[in-house]
Design a protein that fits this description.
By secondary structure, the protein is of the alpha/beta class. It has one domain: 3-Layer(aba) Sandwich (Rossmann fold). The protein contains 9 helices and 8 strands. The chain has a 5-stranded parallel beta sheet. Strand 4 and strand 5 form a beta hairpin. It is globular, with a radius of gyration of 17 Å. It starts with 5 loop residues before the first strand and ends with a helix.
Length: about 230
Amino acid sequence: MSSVPVLTIDGPSGSGKGTVSRATARALGWGLLDSGALYRLVALAGRKAGIGLDGEAELARLAESFDIHFGSTESGEEVVRLDGMEVTDAIRTEQAGNDASKVAALPAVRAALLERQRRFAAPPGLVADGRDMGTVVFPQAAAKIFLTASADERAARRYKQLKEKGVAATLAALSLEIAERDRRDMNRAIAPLVASADAVLLDTTGMSVDAVVERVLREVRGRLGLAE
């Protein structure tokens, strides 16, 4: 792991880290770890197996053994499979996100996924997207970014995404959900959501995706001496 350059991009829900991480990984030609998707997959697998979201030991065993695959179509669209079944859309719902936040608070589940996440680090490099990438999973990462944005902006972004997908939603409900997820993520006993002391803090409120990606690329290239 130490010989592979890693860029961590952490932040709360709606901060733009998923979109920014994917674009940054493409620009660098690096691999991508969407750690949030792993927790969403654990929660979904648990529901399919009839395991409650508080079934820590059972969910941890699933996290160690379930078969997952991340891929893409010829046009570059994401494809995620769980035990051979496509679940790309199923893990991107609001329920899946809230379930993932609850599962992520379980210490045994986090422990079960730790080495699995670290194995994503492979040449030529890795962009790791999550909430504890720079503090726990890759504490020695070559470059670390912590994205944030105002709660109103984050709710508005999620509302726009859902409307574009034809999913009914209200800004008020989304704001409440984001506030609850922030509270749960920041106050969990294990690996709470917090910026690493050596991370670059970037408030994306009012910034375009392109502007954020450009800033992140400038940071990682400067840290690693990479050519543009």
